[in-house]
Amino acid sequence: MSQLKNVEARILQCLQNKFLARYVSLPNQNKIWTVTVSPELRDRTPLVMVHGFGGGVGLWILNMDSLSARRTLHTFDLLGFGRSSRPAFPRDPEGAEDEFVTSIETWRETMEIPSMILLGHSLGGFLATSYSIKYPDRVKHLILVDPWGFPLRPTDPSQIRAPPTWVKAVASVLGRSNPLAVLRVAGPWAWSPPLDPIPAAHPAPVARRGQDQSLQPSPQWQASSCPSQTPRLHHLVAVSKPWPSLVQRFRPDFKRKFADFFDDDTISEYIYHCNAQNPSGETAFKTMMESFGWARRPMLERIHLIQKEMPITMIYGANTWIDTSTGKKVKLQRPDSYVRDMEIEGASHHVYADQPHIFNTVVEEICDSVD
Q1: I need a surface site. Which of 12, 150, 202, 236 has the fewest CB within 10 A?
Q2: Secondary structure string (H, E, C) spanning the chain
């Protein structure tokens, strides 16, 4: 966990806006790792962002500053993922889903957030929808970004959209194991040795985090953490840690997605450490899925349960492996409600990272429509 903490600190130091990073303790002793950006902007409905499977707060780094320019932004690691507590989940699909949803509501109560604009990506979209069914009065607008787990699994194999190569590769390696077990099985073999370190011009300061502690990155630390603000990162900071080559091998696109901020393997390292721990949330996800692309309790069978007054926007990547026809099916099930579906060109499943500027603009417009 300390390695995850360190690499996440490097990511968060790229933020320009004021932010708080701390654990939020729930009554059942679980803790939810939370990052709040622009906490001083309290006159508008806050935006709450829920990450997808295997992710964490650090993957929103391309979006946090823009989306917190005029309102408070909250991100958190889902229970069982990232730096949050990793308890044992119920072993049935409904129980596992309810555990996630209850933790989100308990987190909201503890944070004293009366209502929110709720955005979820992939698994986060599935859980955000489930949350909106159960707690509709807390959500002013539901934003679903390439949501997982909506359609029913087709009985005709020809109707199943082929997953990307990396999904097939992971599936072939894992077999019946948990989805990310290969990272833990690989252990040290998932890491490649780094290049020889280049001495840093100055020792890197330590970012200290505590409950309700405000963190404002210093210019020096911004320069040594964000290559987008410097000619070359490794000219300023010693490269002293190996990077997870297995993540890079399966998902080489992630380095490209975040190239504006990091020209090293920071993001691959972050993803590795998010998923090389006790597979709590991962096991819950496996319980909830029929196979990697399908949910045992498809959300399309329940979307009608959301109050008709709640507006929903569904954002897809034009090149995603997720079934984008889901948006039109949601419209058909909610004829008297506001449902907008759209595709962002040049984006795949990770829309927020593939086309961050377009994504941020779209989400900002949605938020401005609320208040």
Answers
A1: 202
A2: CHHHHHHHHHHHCCCCCCEEEEEEECCCCCEEEEEEECCCCCCCCCEEEECCCCCCHHHHCCCHHHHCCCCCEEEECCCCCCCCCCCCCCCCHHHHHHHHHHHHHHHHHHHCCCCEEEEEECHHHHHHHHHHHHCHHHEEEEEEECCCCCCCCCCCHHHCCCCCHHHHHHHHHHCCCCCCHHHHHHHHHHEECCCCCCCCCCCCCCCCCCCCCEECCCHHHHHHHCHHHCCCHHHCCCCCCCEEHHHHHHCCHHHHHCCCCCCCCHHHHHHHHHHCCCCHHHHHHHHHEEECCEECCCHHHCHHHCCCCCCEEEEEECCCCCCCCHHHHHHHHCCCCCEEEEEECCCCCCHHHHCHHHHHHHHHHHHHHHC
